[in-house]
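Contributing new records

If you add data, match the layout below exactly. Sequence lines come first and carry their own label; structure lines follow with theirs. Keep one chain per record. Anything else will be rejected by the validation script.
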Amino acid sequence: MRLGLDLKGLKEVDKEFERLLREVPEAVAVGLYLEAEAIMAKSIREVPVDTGRLRATGFVQEPVIRGTGVTVMMGYGTNYAVYVHENTSARHTVGKAKFLQHPLEAAAEGFGSRVAKRAAEALIRGTRFRPGTFPTEPKDEPMEAV
């Protein structure tokens, strides 16, 4: 009986693993960003509308990759967004309080699987991060005097 290992091609395998380790965090960033955009799209539909300013400031920031960790921030860029979001006693003709929290909670089930699926698709296609539908920075314009 003879046991052996063919070392031919080991360098190529090693290079491929190194390439994947570099590309996986970016693929996860693409998947996470796309999921954040889907959540923001639902949130936008729930934002109370008076002047439309709050709704217009919804944003999903570009992913930040640190090592193998990926962060995507999203939110609203007005100085009063948190007050509208948290005021559950206010009645709105359009929208409701907790307009970001509820879509986030609804997205929790299956979140990891959806991000992983989108990341795998990005990895297979070689998709790089590209900003999408929403602004990537908070937009906070001064309110006009009435």
